[in-house]
From TrEMBL:
The chain crosses the membrane at residues 12-35, 47-68, 74-94, 140-159, 165-188, 209-234, 240-261, 282-315, 368-389. It comes from the Bacteria. This is Sugar phosphate permease. Residues 9-394 form the Major facilitator superfamily (MFS) profile domain. PROSITE patterns: MFS. GO terms for cellular component: plasma membrane. It is a multi-pass membrane protein. GO terms for molecular function: transmembrane transporter activity. Keywords: Cell membrane, Membrane, Transmembrane, Transmembrane helix, Transport. It is found in: Cell membrane. It comes from Micromonospora taraxaci. The keyword Cell membrane applies. Residues 418-446 are annotated as: Disordered. It holds the Pfam family MFS_1.
Amino acid sequence: MSLLPPPGPARILTLGTLVKTVGRGLWLVASALFLTRSVGLSATQVGIGLTISALVGVLASAPSGYLADRVGPRGVQVGALVVAGTLTVGLIAVRSFPTFVLVGAATALADAVERGARGALIAGAIPADQRVRTRAYLRATTNVGISVGAVLGGFAIAADTRTGYVALILTTAAASLAAALVFLRLPSITPVAAPTHGPRLIALRDRPFLAFTLVDGLMSMHFSLLTIALPLWIAGHTKAPIWMISALTLVNTGLVVLLQVRAASVAATLPAAAGAARRAGVAIALACVLFAASGALPTAGAVGLLGVGSLAHVIGELWHSAAGWAISFGLAPTNAQGQYQGAYGMGYELGKMLAPVVVTTLALGWGVPGWLVLGALFLLLGALVPPVVRWAERTRPIGEPAEPVPALSLDRRSRGSIWQAGSRADGAGTATGGIGAPRGRASTRP
């Protein structure tokens, strides 16, 4: 399997994403330590600041996509990356909670603009039958980039000095600026003229699409199972060795890198994508049941159930990601891809905000019954996607057809195997997270 798409815009997007995510991986592993040990903020202050920043990202998502449609997505994305890199350098000047919130909110805004532009850029530069596959490449690349960056960032953690943290911040900023230079090689996308009448932000008036965004965003809470709930569950509620946490994270990351492009083939049409989302809910629900059962078994049994449960989870994760991309592109009018992709990102940001409280309260606070409730929730959310998509298809405006989702032509090369609290692939994805507290792993939605 090739980890790079064929030469052209998709490859440039992939290379730029790799540069960007290596930088963000560097910062991801050290952000919490820098903010608490070097800046002197409390954990509570960090949490409040990240929540405020995440809220800014949610509110700015759809308007950012609208801006990309009107101005042109390449220029908006490059500009957002330059601003984000500059603001990253501003972290060095953070000495208090107010300045942390100010820099964090500004960086979250830049990240939201970059995410919205990325969706419009993919829609404008990549043929319709290759967009989901391109998203899959970007997600696999995001996992590789953040993993490499996280390993390199470990040196700054080991030093635990302000000099080391400052060097890491400057490297992260440089990566953002370098990614902007890479994206300048993309073709310029002609801006879409603003509608002459009616509302501008039509995505926020599209009730079926917003319903899908909400369902998909809540379903994205499953990313926090592996980053938050499962590590604490393994450490405090099972007889499995503690190294299982790292092993399961490594397996998940590796499978996403190897299989996400192949998994994109399940979302060849809107009905197929909706069905994949339903199956994703089943797989993730099964994972929750297996995780719950692992707490009552001896070491060997717990290790076995955790391993099988993690495989079920990553299968659901692959299906869910591919389905979300296909549906978000497929339901969006051709003249509003940016704002629709931005609105789609709002759902993920909402899920990311809710996930820490939801998964810890249920899985850790309630124990086995909580895991079963989580499983039932993901099963329900997955089952809701097909009827919501059918509703959306029925209500597409006549004369403004949604973007088609033709069959994916996967050639042999593709058939193989920092202000965010939580962190989609653009992910995501997304992802692409911003500068901030770590997600805990590399699997994101680009």
